[in-house]
Design a protein that fits this description.
binds ligand EPZ, UDP-n-acetylglucosamine1-carboxyvinyl-transferase, Chain, alpha+beta, 4-stranded mixed beta sheet, 32% helix
Length: 432
């Protein structure tokens, strides 16, 4: 098993290049199935979720050729619409995009129910509502396989999403791109990765307007073609490193970003006392570590609100801010599993359903902790880099799902972090 060994307690200084957006890539890669041709995808983050998605595509006869560590050529000419490998699909929440893409291209799909980080119940009822509105029948077998088929073909429809869902918005766009007629998605999600998927589909020859607003119109086209496309920078990776700079103090610049995507995050960092400087494609956060951060209240909401994927990182900031901060999770039922780990490090916090209350402490203390999921794992790295002493973080495979080269990037700004491999037995010993 792998662990991070982190020694914290000092400021960080320097700049970090930001990789391509994980949640855009995980929609764009399956979208290549909608054409029979060759797509070249650039600025692809080198992370395990992307590698897993590419493995799933390859299992369907798709030919993958890495041009470099961040660019692939995807040839979908010989795609076979075969049931996707259960265990590969279970690893990935985003595997449900295969349903929309295969339904759009072949009129049917058979994909295992998705996996992904555990924040409580994560249904796909809105995805199913969309597929059924487009004329497909949907069944979920006892083995947890989603079987979708449009026996009489797909038809354009108007679909109102009962909840603002990133996944359902993207999945319906995928299924609708080749349907004759018009499909309208109302109450659509507006995240930057929704816009990126729509732009990619349009580069393939689709006719999608309104992405980034809550009404998206998809006018079906006869066919789509291969293309070259570069993925947008990752809003959450950038936001995580900016929050880290505010936590440790110092001055860190994230480069190759779209500052507008970071507005809700930098606004809250500024409210806590950090200094923000924006360039064309950079954002810098400065903070004097001798002055404590100010308390804030925060609620996570769909874009352009404050992103839920930055919630654990701000829980760490609040645990050290002066005074009492109130954090409300507006998207998921249970995204506070990291708070128990923070308490081991000296945080004073109570959780009641979707609300967490932090009584800020001067300093966190090093302690052995487990990463419960991707963003919580990143938050624990932040806490470890603030704490005096050396912290050991287990279960780091979650973190590797979404942060490319995180050890190298952190070392480049002065963090003391190293990755160690330990025999599983030793890990069990420590746990007991
Ligand atoms: C995407 O998940 C992201 N994952 C998540 O990022 C992110 O937290 C989430 O969007 C919200 O921004 C990927 O893009 C792979 P949703 P998704 O559908 O699509 C409920 C990360 O850290 N809902 O927008 O699954 C759902 O339970 C990950 O990168 C339904 O009720 O999220 C949740 O409460 C974690 N029915 C809310 O909507 C549905 O059919 C938002 O979910 C679908 C969702």
């Amino acid at each position: 098993m792998e662990q991070y060994i982190i020694t914290g307690g000092h400021e960080l200084h320097g700049s970090i290049p930001i990789s391509g957006a994980k949640n855009a890539a995980l929609g764009i890669l399956p979208a290549t199935l909608l054409c029979s041709g060759v797509c070249r995808i650039e600025n692809l983050p080198q992370i395990s979720d992307v590698r897993n998605m590419l493995d799933i595509l390859a299992s369907m006869g798709v030919r993958i050729r890495y041009l470099n560590k961040n660019a692939v050529e995807i040839d979908t000419t010989h795609t076979q619409n075969v049931p996707t490998p259960y265990e590969m699909v279970r690893k990935l929440r985003a595997s449900y995009y295969l349903i929309g893409a295969l339904l759009g291209r072949f009129g049917k799909a058979e994909v295992a129910l998705p996996g992904g980080c555990d924040f409580g119940f994560r249904p796909i009822d809105q995805h199913i509502k969309g597929f059924e509105a487009l004329g497909a029948t949907v069944q979920i077998t006892e083995g947890g396989i989603v079987q979708v088929e449009a026996k009489d073909g797909l038809v354009g429809a108007s679909i109102y999403l009962d909840v603002v869902s990133v996944g359902a918005t993207m999945n319906i766009m995928l299924a609708a791109a080749l349907i004759k007629g018009q499909t309208v998605i109302e109450n659509a999600a507006r995240e930057p990765h929704i816009v990126d998927l729509a732009n990619f589909l349009n580069t393939m020859g689709a006719d999608i307007t309104g992405a980034g607003t809550d009404v998206i119109k998809v006018r079906g086209v006869e066919q789509l073609h291969g293309c070259t496309y570069s993925i947008i920078p990752d809003q959450i990776e950038a936001g995580t490193y900016l929050a880290l700079a505010a936590a440790t103090g110092g001055a860190v610049t994230v480069t190759g970003v779209i500052p507008k995507h970071l507005e809700s995050i930098t606004a809250k960092l500024s409210e806590m006392g950090a200094e923000i400087e924006e360039g064309d494609d950079t954002v810098t956060v400065r903070r004097d570590s001798s002055v404590r951060m100010r308390r804030i209240n925060l609620k996570t909401q769909p874009y352009p609100g404050f992103p839920t994927d930055m919630q654990p990182q701000f829980g760490v900031l609040m645990s050290m801010a002066e005074g009492t901060s109130i954090l409300t999770e507006g998207i998921y039922d249970n995204r506070y599993r990291y708070v128990n780990e923070l308490r081991r490090m000296g945080a004073e916090a109570t959780v009641d359903g979707r609300i967490a209350v932090f009584e800020g402490v001067e300093k966190l203390n090093a302690a052995p902790v487990h990463a419960p999921d991707l963003r919580a794992g990143a938050a624990l790295i932040m806490a470890a880099l603030c704490a005096e002493g050396t912290t050991v973080i287990d279960e780091i495979h979650y973190i590797e799902r979404g942060y490319e080269d995180i050890v190298r990037k952190l070392k480049s700004v002065g963090a003391e972090i190293r990755l160690v491999e330990i025999p599983d037995g030793a890990a069990l010993e420590r746990a007991n």
